[in-house]
Amino acid sequence: MRIGIFGTGGMADALGTQWARHDLMVSGRSDPGPLAGRLGAATGTWRETAAFADVLLLAVPAAAIGEVLAEAGPLAGKVLVDCTNDPGLTGTPVASRIVTDAHVVKAFNLAHVDVWRMTPPVFGGRPLSVPLCGDDRAAIEAVSTLVRDVGAHPVHAGGLDRAALLEATAAFVIGLWFAGEDAQAILTPLG
């Protein structure tokens, strides 16, 4: 799979490291060279990375999404994985602010970046489940492959209209973590 990574921060690094067996290209608002070097990836402009990739990881701050996608150009037929959260909690979900002709899949936004550095992310003997929200079956399957590549379990959680629920869940759970609570303990185990 050819994966383009939009961004050079923690999520780009953590997920890119897990996907290094694929062909990778990195672009960023800061120099993508150091991250690309660690990943064995090529570097390119936003547009070059978009043209190269079958799947694009959108790992830039929420405020930069519009600018990045405008510079990337047309993305028809591409899969765009949105792992972003908006720390400002503007009330408008990030996923609904993405204007593109790509097939958007919301994923990887519920866990801290350090979880994506785990190989594999297993807790209490159970692999981490990753909810995926998207409207295109082939895009969901492509992202499911990437979820399995990190050692996690993909869960189709509905259409892209449900991405707002993932973002709200992230905001709620992250708030609990910062308050020192065990957010995982709020969900009852099955059986």
From TrEMBL:
Domain Pyrroline-5-carboxylate reductase catalytic N-terminal, by residue range, is: 2-85
Q: Out of the domains of life, which is the source?
A: Bacteria
- Recorded protein name is NADPH-dependent F420 reductase
Give the Pfam families listed for this entry: F420_oxidored (PF03807)
Query: Gene3D superfamilies in the record, alphabetically?
Result: NAD(P)-binding Rossmann-like Domain
The answer to whether keyword DNA repair applies is: no
Which organism's genome codes for this protein?
A: Amycolatopsis plumensis
Query: Which keywords has UniProt assigned to this entry?
Result: Oxidoreductase
